[in-house]
Amino acid sequence: MAPTQDGRVLLEVKNLKKYFPVKRGIFRRTVGWVKAVDGVSFFIRRGETLGLVGESGCGKTTTGRAILKLIEPDPGSQILFHDDGRVIDIAKLRPRQMKPLRRKMQIIFQDPYSSLNPRMTIGDIIAEPLIIHGVARTRKEREARVRELLEAVGLNPAYMKRYPHEFSGGQRQRIGIARALALDPQLIVCDEPVSALDVSIQAQVINLLEDLQKEFGLTYLFIAHDLSVVRHISDRVAVMYLGKIVEMAETEELFQNPKHPYTEALLSAVPVPDPDVKLERIILEGDVPSPVNPPSGCVFHPRCPYYNRNGWEVCRTQTPELVDVTGTGHFAACHFARELQLQGVTAMIERREARS
Amino acid sequence: MAEAGLSVPFESEPPPSAAAAVESPWRLAWRRFLRHKLALAGLGVLAVLGLSALLAPWVAPYDPNAIDLRARYQPPSWTHPMGTDDLGRDMLSRVIYGGRISLSIGIASALVAVLIGTLLGAAAGFFGRWLDGVIMRFTDLMLTFPPLLLLILLASLFGTSFVTIVLVISAVSWMNVARLVRASFLSLREQDFVEAARALGAGPVRLIVKHILPNALSPIIVAATLGAASAILTESTLSYLGLGIQPPTSSWGTMLQTAQAQISTAPWMSLFPGLMIFITVLSINFVGDGLRDALDPRKVV
Q1: SS3 letters across chain A
Q2: Which among A102, A161, A206 is the nearest to B201, CB-wise?
Q3: In chain B, where are the structural domains located?
Q4: If 0-12 CB within 10 Å is exposed, 13-18 middle and 19+ buried, where does residue B109 land?
């Protein structure tokens, strides 16, 4: 995986790691490590949306926050930001050096209720980035910019003087988006931006994100666990399991032609809005193993239906690398990615219909 | 999600009349406070006490230190509503002037204690790591001393002027504030809006002053209020032990101390200062309760 030459790449993450210490006893001795993110590599092209999916606790959020240095990545991680021909390794920057880059990458949070300071007015919340970076110097300039931003996210600028508690979840999420947009960033990490919203409001916020992307040429890292949302908004999708990326491909390619058994199982769980169709769900055995003590070899092997059927030794002993399986940018970390015949979403539906 | 097109109109816009008065969180809290009857009564009593202490020279009927040996130990009467003491001084005037000392020591000690507690608690909660360990272990250590012992020790070491008494009282009472502030800083530090400010490039000063402290203020205000009540009590204790403000100036505590010898022959000498302490502390506690209810966001009515 070496897309460095690709001129369109905006962000390139290499071998990102974040282990959290597990401390015990009165001396707070470190007795182990939670491998929240364990050697994650991916890249995002300018203007595209990369969906990052996986179940709770797989390290999606930690990955997103580490990219913004809200969580300090472990040594050895590389987060390369391609900025007008220069390549900056964010992982190595000190907080002070990080500040100019904060204008270029922003974040939208999952919970619209905790992401806005309850003691600040909407206007102050959105103007804060302008003050921190000394963008709009006078009060008037700032107010004009806040107005502009509120209109851009579809809110009435008259609400500037109001406090967050007066707004609904969807409106608060719009306010959070306006704040993220204030500095004209290039990359926005969307950390489950619609998971906490009503389904009817989800659509509005997703549409807004898409419109803003077109208007401002934004690049999104879209973290989510809802596969239909991810399929709708992403150009490419990366699937995480237990701190590692197991598969990454163009969205339709991934949904129709998965190369990793975990992805196949995930896809089989997507609800189909047709009462006549009943998918044959692939039920994974057991629970997600603890990231403190992940399984040897392929981290997925204890729950993999194909391993359990065939008992391949290599799955237990060797960690599979994330490799381009098709030669066209379909990456998978499975020893048998080329051999296995896995089913995509369309195939799953058709098979069932043929039978009934 | 809407079918196919995803073309749903925006949610209905919120609160009526966008231009109407702004409901800031503080204003909302004040409205909730106004509904608390006991707290309002407490606030009224405190206002009367505070005003009479402030305007003592105009309110007091006599000079509090004017000795009249012909009028010693007089029970309450129309000329001396609270009676006179062992030197024939008017008790009402002395109680009014004593209120000045007691109230100001109470308020000043509470403020200083809250200041120390907030600074240490904020530093421990925000920066964490070794600083947290050092500060909190020191706090624990201070809490292990019996407060009375510490008070007597400090007061006898540093003397009995107004300033030293304030410092001594706050030195034994900042620990709870520090713990409180640290706890709310720890939880607020992890909130998304703090994380958002960090992602925007806000430095530690801005994070603390703009984002964390304003949201940690409610428990601090309540602690300061209740702290004032206990500081008044502590001051009385000190005075009673003879380590408070020295005569002829007197606080309610010193008056109690001089009165104890005559408790059976001139009970009014101890009754009135004691009553004042009782009423003041009770009122402050009512106000504190009202504030806690008004400021606690989980108790939105």
Answers
A1: CCHHHCCCEEEEEEEEEEEEEEEECCCCEEEEEEEEEEEEEEEEECCCEEEEECCCCCCHHHHHHHHCCCCCCCCCCEEEEEECCEEEEHHHCCHHHHHHHHCCEEEECCCCCCCCCCCCCHHHHHHHHHHHCCCCCCHHHHHHHHHHHHHHCCCCHHHHHCCHHHCCHHHHHHHHHHHHHCCCCCEEEEECCCCCCCHHHHHHHHHHHHHHHHHHCCEEEEEECCHHHHHHHCCEEEEEECCEEEEEEEHHHHHHCCCCHHHHHHHCCCCCCCCCCCCCCCCCCCCCCCCCCCCCCCCCHHHCHHHHHHCCHHHHHCCCCCEECCCCCCEECCCCCCCCCCCCHHHHHHHHHHHC
A2: A102
A3: 26-53+102-294
A4: buried
Q: Does B140 contact chain A (CB < 8 Å)?
A: no
**Closest-CA residue of chain A to B25:** A119
- Closest-CA distance, A207 to chain B, in angstroms, reads 7
CATH class of B26-53+102-294: mainly alpha
Q: What is the pLDDT of residues A100-130, one digit of tens each?
A: 889 999 999 998 889 999 889 999 999 999 9
Of B6, B192, B200, the CB nearest to A102: B200
Question: Could you count the other beta carbons within 10 Å of the beta carbon of residue A328?
Answer: 9
CB atoms within 10 A of CB B277: 24
Min CA distance, A166 vs chain B (Å)?
A: 7
Distance CA A127, CA A138 (A): 11
A198-235 per-position pLDDT tens digit: 888 899 999 999 999 999 999 999 999 888 899 999 99
Of A132, A165, A199, the CB nearest to B1: A199
Token pair 């947290």 is found at: B132
Per the prediction, chain B carries an average pLDDT of 84
Structural tokens at position B59 = 């309110």
- For this complex, say whether ipTM is above 0.90: no
The dihedral through the CA atoms of B235, B239, B241, B242 has a sign that is positive
Q: Which of B18, B197, B211 has the CB atom closest to A156's CB atom?
A: B18
Quick one: how far is CA A356 from the chain centroid? 38
Q: What is the pLDDT of residues B185-200, one digit of tens each?
A: 999 998 999 999 999 9
Regarding beta strands A331-332 and A244-250, do their DSSP bridges make them parallel or antiparallel, or are they unpaired? antiparallel
Looking at beta carbons, which residues of chain B come within 8 Å of A200? Answer: 1-2, 8
**Chosen from A103, A119, A190 to mutate, greatest number of chain B CBs within 10 A:** A119
